[in-house]
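dumping the sequnces here before i forget
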Amino acid sequence: MGAVLVYVDQVDGAVRKPTLELLTLARRIGEPVAVHLGPGAEVAALVLAEHGAARVLAAEAPEFAEYLVVPKVDALEAAAKAMNPVAVLVPSSGEGKEIAARLAVRLGSGIITDAVDLEAGVDGPVATQSVFAASFTTKSRVTKGTPVITVKPNSATPEQAPAAGAVEPLTVAFGDAARGARVVSRSPRESTGRPELTEAAIVVSGGRGVGGAENFSVIERLADSLGAAVGASRAAVDAGWYPHSNQVGQTGKTVSPQLYVACGVSGAIQHRAGMQTSKTIVAVNKDPEAPIFDLVDYGVVGDLFEAVPQLTEEVKTRKN
Amino acid sequence: MSLRIVVCVKYVPDATGDRHFAEDLTTARDAVDGLLSELDEYAVEQALQIAEAADDAEVTVLTMGPEDARDALRKALSMGADKAVHVEDDALHGSDVMGTSLVLARAIERTGYDLVVCGMASTDGTMGVLPAILAERLGVPQVTLLSEVAVAGGNVLGRWDGDTASERVEAQLPAVVSVTDQSGEARYPSFKGIMAAKKKPVESLELSDLGIDAGEVGLAGARTAVEEAAERPARSAGTIVKDEGEGGKQLAAFLAESKFI
Ligand SMILES: Cc1cc2nc3c(=O)[nH]c(=O)nc-3n(C[C@H](O)[C@H](O)[C@H](O)COP(=O)(O)OP(=O)(O)OC[C@H]3O[C@@H](n4cnc5c(N)ncnc54)[C@H](O)[C@@H]3O)c2cc1C
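..and the predicted 3d for all of it:
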């Protein structure tokens, strides 16, 4: 079985869930070989092996953290040359997509981004994508070179599939471009303690209807009662009521949770692009004509400041 | 020396229209009105601001696309760009990102540049990888997805906002940057700007001007193929209740029934 390179998205050896999803998808098309860049490979290898990584190629160099994108492309290129893989899979983050794209240029390959599913096909892996604000589903294939495919979070349920996962050093020679774009400083953001937006089973979002930054506590209280992540529309983000990192939609995050709760969100096409594939959708909106109601499994036409706190209380009562 | 800025823009079908696929599974261009991708307006805006802050600068907008794509160039010119380059060739139909980036990279080199500015993604293809590929093809640094950008002392500096951190990033010119929709509202063309745009030069180029073979681009040169496209089935109509004082409780009952609580 051919090797499938899986780029590991991790923070200091803590592997992020989308990587485990990629390993699960990789097993459908070949033998997963993880590529781990930066410190912590030995620790990461345990969880990577548990999810099917036959080998873990590891490289450590300050360049990976101090410079943007290119050092990681150099490393993946070295891994691809060494393994001659049947496909390369990368998580669909902003950086992940750029790494994948530059790698594809170097390999003379085609690239598919933002796949939501992957299966083996006669002529190589077939990727499913959601396009035009998730109003269409396409199936595509890379027709030239080693397929390079980026996959969105929540595209598969990570499966346990114990494999050897031995750590092997990967030798990377950085090219001239590697040190071209420098990180001058980094300010970490404080964690809210809530689930990661793209990984959460439940997302509660607030829009312009929330009416102010301080009112977002209404949304947060409901989210906390449900153990949910908090999302926001661009209108709420642009108004400065909630951070951009919580924006759902075309220029924010794509979420695909079990349950999406939209509060004071109209449901514009660009918002739908980021949440339309949620399993169950409910909404509270005072305008019965709001397009969000076309998507819902259950909708309440009313004032969110009445319905949402009442819902929160009821959730708490029922949970006790 | 004048700072030469090239802004790559795309003419896209209006996202609020009923977008769909043509028979050859490329994006249907006839069904929905086209416009300058809103996300590229942010790129034009940042390019103009950088040019205004420089002693001497020239902003060129570049697009590859059918005849109608000129509308996108006109809009950017009326916002204040100085000149435009339009690559138009029948052989380009169906190009994927590899073909498109090849054409744009050659056109950028031909135009001459110190800084290439792109939007964060197109609103139709939404891949967001073109800026990185341009940097790879041009052999210059990339600093992308910036919410703030400036040029100083031969460097481009910016801020990137990630999930867990914000970073200040920097590269030497020449470089490729992309800016997000958090970088600042784009200006509206003024009446004067619209009038002036009519007199600004728009250069038309064909593949032969760029030394590119037809087989390298278009459907023929594409390295990816869409094999199937299906409309997502409409979601089945849900229950909608008017809140008469019990709306929150009714919603809770639905969530309990669906086993969320
Ligand atoms: C290129 C581009 C990219 C974009 N990307 C995104 C994106 O990523 N994400 C995104 O969300 N948008 C995006 N947008 C913007 C999008 O078009 C909409 O403008 C935005 O989603 C609207 O946000 P909203 O629903 O919160 O506000 P509105 O459309 O103003 O809707 C507010 C809703 O709240 C309801 N409401 C008001 N008060 C109450 C109350 N007390 N109780 C209950 N309901 C109430 C109103 O009835 C209304 O339906 C993008 C636009 C463009 C052009």
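The mean pLDDT of chain B is 96.
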